[in-house]
Amino acid sequence: MPTYVIETENLSKEYPYGFLHLKKKTSLEGLNLQVEQREVFGFLGPNGAGKSTTIKLLMRLIFPSSGTARILGKSIEDVSMHQDVGYLPEQPYFYDYLTAAELLDYFARFHKLTATDRRARVEKMLKKVGLETAKKIQLRKYSKGMLQRVGMAQAILHDPAVVVLDEPMSGLDPLGRREVRDIILELKKEGRTVLFSTHILSDAETLCDRVGVIVGGKLRGVGTPLEIVGIKTQGNEILFEFAGEAKNLPLLSSATKAGELFRVQVAESELYAALDQLKAADARIISVAQIKPTLEEFFVNLVAADRAQASAVEVSGK
Amino acid sequence: MRNVWTVATNAFREAVRDRVLYNLVFFALLMIGASILVGQISIGIEETVIVSLGLTATSVIGLMIAIFIGVGLVSKEMDKRTLYALLAKPLQRWQFLVGKFIGLVMTLTVNTAVMAAGLYAALWVVKHPLERNDVYVLVAIYLILLKLAIIVALALFFSCLTTPFLAILFTFGIYVAGVFAQDLRTVQAVNLSDGTMRMMRGISYVLPNFENFNVMGAVAHGEAVAWPLVWQATVYALLYCALVLAATAAVFSRRNLK
Amino acid sequence: MKSRAIAGVVLAVFLVGGSAAVWRLQKRIDEQRDAMSLERQEVLLWPGSVVKKLSLEYAPLAGAIYWTRAVQYYGESHRLQQGKFELLWPLLDVATTLDPHLIAAYRFGSTFLSAPFPAGVGRPDLAVKLLERGLKENPDFWRLYQDLGNVYYFDMKDYPKASEAFAEGSKNPHAHIWMKVMAAKIAAEGESLETSFFLWRDIYQTTVDKTVKDNAEKHLKIVKVQMDLRELNRLADEFEKQRKQRPARMGDLQQAGMMNGTPVDPEGFPYVFGLDGRAEVNSKSPLAKEKEFLKK
Lengths: 318, 258, 296
Fold this sequence. Notes:
Helices cover 33% and strands 29% of the residues of chain A. Chain A has 318 residues and is of the alpha/beta class. Chains in contact: A-B, B-C. Chain A binds chain B through residues 56, 59-63, 79-83, 85, 87-89, 91-95, 97-98, 106-107, 109-111, 151, 154, and chain B through 2-3, 6, 10, 13-14, 17-18, 80-82, 84-92, 254, 256-257.
């Protein structure tokens, strides 16, 4: 078994544009990525960052300008590699004149399965994604959520060791998102490796073993969600209710009103002193919470920094 | 090769479900109308008219299907992005192309076979019993089918290069040029230099020579078609399609999907 | 809700009224076009080579269409008694360029291009041109030689060329034997009523084209009249020899025992003797109108 399930080496993609195709737009630059066995890897980034580009490069839908990549030890140029890889495209669309059962059967025929095996798998998949009752209806009549489920079914139909999902949650309602999350967790339990891209940070935080953040075509950081943002806590936040006079509670001066309640931030070392103060003033404590920087803040800061750098570059005329 | 067949059968199924074959209803009405009216209008040439009309309709309708559906084979998949999930399967791109080609040719075969039956029915109404030489009408239809296969290959080729609209235009343009390819070879004009004439002759060989497949003049008058012509045309069509498909595969294999 | 109903009513009225208007308008247009001469109604009468290029691979069908139009043009011109069939040659020219094997077009064309007005165009030279093209493309169709011979014999009165045409046609193994006989007879005698009758009768019996058949029938009747008149005049000359005067009526010949019964023309009208003592067609007979064909 190779060390990494998915690895890329200096993977880059440039798009020529403009008159006579002389100018180049870089959508991916020098990507060096390693996805380990059995992990759920989240590919995180804003729209246009290069997530879909990376995935399409891995799936051989587009071709790299430079660099290489391997999946399960085989080069991405090797078509047989796809026997063990499942792929769900972004906003999937399938042949609308086919039924779900027919589509799955069609796709299954490209894998080395016997006819009975194929039939059994198609049934199993339809049941797994909850489309058994709709299996004889043509796909043109399917809702977006149902199409996403069909897409998921065709991605895992052939029992792949690696599953690559491009924005699997996009456009789904909360129930749909929960279903996809459950399926991803189930895939992990079954020992498969999952790579999925998303711009929804909470999903990345809750599902992924590791996260890779990509902004502006460059990989900015890889690690566990916690590692990415740094574990430093910045203190605590106390939510309390106080009906008495302000002079009895000096803490009030640094508190903000939140409806009928008050919110105040204190450093960790001063937590208990603040709590004593509130107790003495007969304030009612509602909650005490740790302040952690979230992935969101890290993200937003990163994007802002990137944009500042980009405009600086423009201004300097480079 | 199983992959090619899988794609082909699905392409056939798509055409059927897209109601492409309903064009046969129009064709049937045309033949019925013609066989009723032809006696009133064209004395002495009833058979000629029925055969000419039937072959023309087969050719024209087949041409429209070959060009419009042919261009859509790949461009529809690219537009609707149904291609994404498919190409991530263990399927070579050339297998996808050849499969689509075969699927549409199968559809056209079924279509022209039914048209042949309709044509014979109309011919029988106008002149019964049928004679021995009427079997050559079937030969004429077979040659039309060969021509349509070449057009499908060309439509596929252009649709991988450019937008659907331009692909339709180019394919139709090559069709017209191909009809006159033979004339290009024998052109004798006073004010053309030797080099130009040689170039025109060269182009005439590159273009698909559709006159090879046109025996309407003979068959409409009940004449026979020489068998060597038939198998030579078959080999020509196979070779030409193979060349065009190879070029298409080369172009498509390195194409970045949007 | 009310506006929807009103919109529905307006739409219905428009559909009904509009359709009626279209119908009425079309009738008016038809009347207008009938007033136009037939020549101005014909479109797409480009040179044959141009039409052939434009029709791509579908030339035989286009040829059949032009041929059909030629026949209809002739029929309409005849019925409306308009014009002198100016478009017949161009239409036949295009039709046979598109489909050189349209035998019917050559045969029809040869008859009505060479026949003198009002039956045809009166241009036997064009008929010869058409037939020569027909023979070049269909050398095995011996009847085209027959048609060529007819044109030379009847309309151009060129008996050597007529004989040559019949002789050429007789070389075809499928040709009827009389072709050879005709070649010889015409070479020897030039024009004769028996030859004319025979040739017209063959056309009448073998053609499938009703127009051609009717034309042949008319000519057959005329030749029969000429033959009858010739016979009657011969009897009248005999009578004159015997009685030193011309017969005044048919009855005279019967009384002289030279004839049984009353001879009638093909339309059933009895022949009469004119004031000059020569046999004539009855003035009541429709054949009397064909004076130009009747030679004294």
